[in-house]
Protein 1
Amino acid sequence: MEEFAVRPDPADPRLTERVAGIDQAGQPIETAVPVERPLTLFLNGREIVTMMTVGDYPDCLAVGYLLNQNMLRPDDRITAIEVDEEAEAVIVRTERQTDFEGKLKKKTLTSGCAQGTVFGDVMEKFDTIALDPEAVIHTSWLYALSKKINTTPSLYLEAGAIHGCVLCERDRPLIYMEDVGRHNAIDKIAGYMHLKAISPAGKLFYTTGRLTSEMVIKTVQMGIPILVSRSGFTAWGVALARRANLTLIGRAKGKRFIALAGAERLRFDADPAAADDEPRRVQRKASLDEDAA
Amino acid sequence: MEEFAVRPDPADPRLTERVAGIDQAGQPIETAVPVERPLTLFLNGREIVTMMTVGDYPDCLAVGYLLNQNMLRPDDRITAIEVDEEAEAVIVRTERQTDFEGKLKKKTLTSGCAQGTVFGDVMEKFDTIALDPEAVIHTSWLYALSKKINTTPSLYLEAGAIHGCVLCERDRPLIYMEDVGRHNAIDKIAGYMHLKAISPAGKLFYTTGRLTSEMVIKTVQMGIPILVSRSGFTAWGVALARRANLTLIGRAKGKRFIALAGAERLRFDADPAAADDEPRRVQRKASLDEDAA
């Protein structure tokens, strides 16, 4: 798969808006901000949820959400995905009726951004997933990935206030999705992988968001053995990563990072002192839950 | 009300955990991370939702959540709030039965962090709220608030990966709450204000999180006319702030900020060039959805 097979499109006029205001000197300014719009998801005619999203890849978002909630099993055959832009709706149709009704009864809203629901049986499935024990991550890949991801044009660099998630292989970012909710970004990648039949084998996952229980659960559900973030950890995120044997690397900025689970997959082939500090422009918007997430 | 009448307690052993790992040089390290635990909310014996929270002020979180969801009206008399730590549950009892059942049918999961549900009638109420047109914010207050909030001891400075919200008056931070979900932090303040009968008049609200539609809706629901954030904006957040005549100030770091709604409440009494840059230590954890939120 080629590098950045999917990448953000900051030039898409549907994804950002220009708005006028004033700055600290009282001078008029104009700035770009990301769009946030509702999208209502239906499964076989039944309304599931309304999500707030930047709006790109609604088909991937719908399928990824249903997969990560265990509402769609990997062997369910999808017969249609209909996006109705006017009605702000997406409808996923499957060959057989799914057994999700019972799942709607028991839900947990999570501490992550957006759409954070964990259904009762997600944890049951979690404990049955075996992540690849042979997978490794070289520190040279980690540094190369951070640099490529943070300097490639994105809605984040254009407008701030948006999360990014990236499916990677070795030192190559493959699928880079952004969304106002970080769980949308990860769900969009899960949906894309399912629709294009991309295997999680040999992959690692990069996110700009915090490593909460929900992000760990979704990554494990997707079968990806390594999760990397610029941001920090919660205690339950760390505990779940250890339980699933997921490698959990956080606070990865410039040359620095720490690993709090699965550190045996790390291969130290780069000299941290030689790693670049981050260029100032990748931080220019001061715009994302920067100092608290 | 005194400055920091409520402030974070980073020394509370229930709120952070120390975990071991390794750093970029392969050296063993130990670091603090915030706790994230489930709390199930019941209203008069009916289960409403399970929230992921750091766990302090469960009574305030419960009441604030119910108020901000319009499940509890300001004139509903609360007869008991029972916190069951073992069962990880909080039960709110009211004198009369509430009419929330219908509201459970129509919900929207939002793009913000955590617990983001907006019920159908929230928007109906939104349009009836009149925010104080006389309220003002001096830029000198803004600079003083940012400095006080960002340098006071907090779970954020101790462990990262946590959001803060602060109810303020002029240049004084009054109630500073933190949580792994920023909506929990704002709900805890709403609950505290209700339980202690603190008026929103003359107050402003500071948050570390992004200015999404949900944060704007909650601030307006609380009757607070000015909302300030270190982070960025979404287009719908800006549009709703303009509709409600809320003053919306974002990307407020060091001397810089921009206002995208309600700028007429600003009074420019400080020289931005004289404002401090932020001390490096307030950013030290690199730990919160720093560059994407």
Note: The helical segments of chain B are 58-68, 120-126, 139-151, 155-159, 182-195, 213-221, 235-244.
Protein 2
Amino acid sequence: MGNESLRGEGEALLSADVLRQALKKVGSERYHHQHPFHLLMHEGKLSRGQLQAWALNRYFYQSAIPVKDAIILSRSDDAEFRRAWRKRIIDHDGDGNARGGIEKWLKLAEATGLDAERVRSKQEILPATAYAVNEYLNIVRTRPLFEAVASSLTELFSRDLIALRMDRMRQHYPWLAGGLAYFEARLEQAPEDAAFAFEYVSTQAKSRAEQERVIQSLRDKCDILWAQLDALYFAYVQPGWPPPGAFRIES
Amino acid sequence: MGNESLRGEGEALLSADVLRQALKKVGSERYHHQHPFHLLMHEGKLSRGQLQAWALNRYFYQSAIPVKDAIILSRSDDAEFRRAWRKRIIDHDGDGNARGGIEKWLKLAEATGLDAERVRSKQEILPATAYAVNEYLNIVRTRPLFEAVASSLTELFSRDLIALRMDRMRQHYPWLAGGLAYFEARLEQAPEDAAFAFEYVSTQAKSRAEQERVIQSLRDKCDILWAQLDALYFAYVQPGWPPPGAFRIES
């Protein structure tokens, strides 16, 4: 956390390839594929109740995604950018015929054994879930547009995580198999979206300091995903696991 | 969490006394005096490192308080209200002679053995601390003014908690005794502030539905305090403790 705005000031611009490597490094250190909650999930060690808690809380995140994307869309004065970005809203909200990502997530929640209306009401989510998701909205609303776009770059990493997850879910939680349509769609959508967003930030960040802001925005977004799992782990699983970069007690 | 806006619609207005009782009930159920992190603190069971983590994270909360109060002040068109409310900003920021609450908190952090600059930099806080505090700012920025004011009503309960805490700190962590000036000041400030805020909301909430919004705002603020301790407990202490009202796994 904190002010990083001066980092990179006066240094040479990174090439697109080097920028991509720097973003991948953030992913390897901070993306939530490493979070103990996901490790337990992929090892088949979560109970049905724990998967319910995950599906119910993450529904809140999923249902904010088109709002986040509409904020980003609203901040661009470039019709070409807006035409490209609106795909994301359609992907999540559907188009009246094809079911969108939010409804598909609801199907996953139902496959865990939860009633759809209970999930849709959002009444039982952890407050910390709402705070983390609202912080995502704060970021895309208040930071420069290229940073808002950069915060979506966790999609650079999501395909691999989703492929692994689908495999492990079919193996360990076969009763969930009928609820995986959300992930199925994301296998294709996420890499397309990431490619567009990367292209955008790599042309819009015109100084090394701006490139550092791109990298920081991705770090901040990783923290938002991580914190949601921390809250789940604390409420529904266990121990003491400060997120990357946070204060650690001296041993 | 969730939409409570219709609660109380068409029902009779509560008297000021009954409203106060309803607020006290929220406090007894949700205020953070019950949080396991505070229970450990008051039993003398926290290590110096755990108290450092607490002081360092809560510094982020303390330093946002005058920002929160300035947002509230900025939203009132009543000079009398603004004159009364600005006292809070002075209490926390100081006046050039008397040290304000933020600096006093820094003294507490130093008494735990942390370097003031390290705390002031905010670099090592838990992301979840920032999300919870920023949600407090979201609330006072976006909800009707009487709800923003109502969110300060945790001060109805803080005097008792602070008196207990000072007593237990002197008993269990005598090396902290030189850092308690923040709490000393709050013993008097908090009840004054709470009396003003209660008077304001009890005259401004003109329907039962609005009174229910007052109660909900206090609940939401309690959740914000509670979530900060959850994050500390998860990162630096232990188990599984869903906050009041959140999903619970069926046993």
Note: Chain A touches chain B at residues 1-2, 47, 49-50, 52-53, 56-57, 121-128, 130-132, 134-135, 138, 223-224, 226-227, 230-231, 233-243, 245-247, 249-250 (CB under 8 Å).
